[in-house]
Amino acid sequence: MATSYRSPVDMLSQWASTQGSEIYLRQPVRGQYKDYTWQQVYSAVQQIAGALRHLGYNAGDKIALLSKNCAEWFITDLALMYGGYISVPIYPTANSDTIRYVLEHSGAKAIFVGKLDHWPDQEPGVGGDILRLALPYETMPAQYQWLQLLNLGAPLIDAEAPTEDQVMTLIYTSGSTGKPKGAVQTFGAYSWTCNAVVRDLKADSNDRLISYLPLAHITERVAIEGSSFYAGCPVAFVESLETFVTDVQRMRPTVFFSVPRLWTLFQKNIIDKVGSFKKLQTLLKIPLLGWLVKRKIHQGLGLDKVRLLGSGSAPIPPSLVEWYHSIGLDICEAWGMTENCAYSIINHPFDASKIGTVGKPILGCKIKQSPEGELLVKSPSLMREYYKAPEATAAAFDEEGYFKTGDLCEIDSDGCVSITGRVKDNFKTAKGKYVAPVPIERKLAQDPHVELICVIGSGLPHPVALVQLAEGAALQAREEVRTSLKETLDSVNPNLESHETVDAIIVVTEPWTIENDILTPTLKIKRHVLEKAYSDRVEGVRGAEVKWEDEL
CB of 423 within 8 A of CB of 374? Predict the structure, then answer.
């Protein structure tokens, strides 16, 4: 698809000229919106870019950004683009070791620090020799505060426009299998992808967006931040986890994206309010009452004005998408990676018959399957390279320039793609047979008691499933949960190959979190960490049992 290149900076200038007095960013502060118009954002962008010039930083310098989502994150990002700086966003949940690694590896010369829940734990990773610039929130000590920056030096008025092949950002992967890699993305790749999102989702200035998934992740940076640049629509932010529902209800977004784990939590909260899953299903079947219940659920979530729902970042159980479909909320599953600006394949317009797939490639994206079943993609959204990693870069592309995604897939006769696992996730049991864990996990995850699941088995006689219980299940009688999990296991095992059958389900009681290094910042499970922690402990478990960790 040929799209005439226009940078986010160019789009900001356009909206400031054509709808400058319209509200663009809405930041809740102590329950009240602090609003920024397009013109105010443009002026702040020029001033922050000018302040960086005043401090001696030049176009091409790398500047890091460590903060939870907020209006000033957008303003800072745009200022870095405007000044020709290369942004290096860091996850606000990153530990000090990861922060130190990214800063050192990228060669960042300064860092913006902002909204952070645990900044005293993270500060050692920033170190004392890098200049700190603070967004206007409670954060780690910094040499310059936001208000100082807005009055430091002259605004940068005539910055050179960023070119299509100019490096815009280094996006570090979430590191599910080791050290994070820095994907080098250009203005052209980012612009192309954002335009594709706006085109496909038919977004315009009448839409309303809400930003709460980490902006350090390319999905949020394209789907929400990028959409706002190219559609010219307002964006609201979430003040805190406690105010999440209130903030969504207040903005009433028209487009809303989430990740599988949060879709699961939303479902749990809905069911808890009704009383039970069975009671809800009964109410939904009563004609008029069912319609009223659905409407009340939509309003309760703040999604009664939504026209498009999306899910990405990790596979979502088909049963969960079916459940939302039954209450009138259609979730379009999409597929993408850091390396391709997070947008290549999507089930949009939503097709209920294709639940379980991630849909078809978008216009301008080509896909193919390697002989081993790996999904390969090619589009203008692909990264230029991995920063300072020529060997990893060379290994990531085939001879035709297709990116090797590492995802195993199946492609049906309609061209719809199903992700069946990760190449590196497949393991060999003690019997010498390879097992793909993801399809097994999806089947076992149909049990409503399961929130998170990880099938391990490298070197074991048979695979074993580690399970984290859903919050409600943890309060139920152990034997009741055991019976349900055992029934699920007994229904799944007969449909697996003999070497794939699951020897046991082990209920793990320690929460899997980002803090204990079991989840990545995008809430993906680090399988290798759980393999290392549990392989020896579960070796003797046999006979399709269901056991709690303390029973081993």
Answer: yes
Same domain, 231 and 262: no
Task: Enter the tokens of residue 400.
Answer: 């035709």
Looking at the DSSP bridge assignments, the partners of residue 180 are none
The β-bridge relationship of strands 23-29 and 235-237 is: parallel
Tell me the whole-structure pTM to 2 decimals. 0.87
Helix (H, G, I), strand (E, B) or coil at 171: strand
CATH number at residue 407: 3.40.50.12780
Say yes or no: 378 and 432 in one domain.
no
- Identity of the residue numbered 206: N
How many angstroms separate the Cα of 325 from the Cα of each of 59, 144, 214, 226, 268? 48, 49, 26, 28, 15
Task: Name the helix (H) or strand (E) containing 190.
Answer: helix 187-201
HEC profile for 325-391?
HHCCCCEEEEECCHHHCCCCEECCCCCHHHECECCEECCCCEEEECCCCEEEEECCCCCCEECCCHH
Q: Would 2 be classed as within a structural domain?
A: no
- Grade residue 1 by pLDDT with cuts at 50, 70 and 90: very low
CB 16, CB 41: distance < 8 Å:
yes
Residue type, 98: T
* Upper half-sphere CA count for residue 417 (Cβ side, 13 Å): 29
pLDDT value for 281: 82
267 plus 349 within the same structural domain: yes
Residue 243 domain flag: no
CATH of the domain at 487: 3.30.300.30
What digits encode the pLDDT tens for the residues 118-158? 999 999 999 878 999 999 999 999 999 999 999 999 999 98
Condensed to tens digits (0 to 9), the pLDDT of residues 378-397 reads: 999 999 999 999 999 999 99
β-pair partners for 170: 184
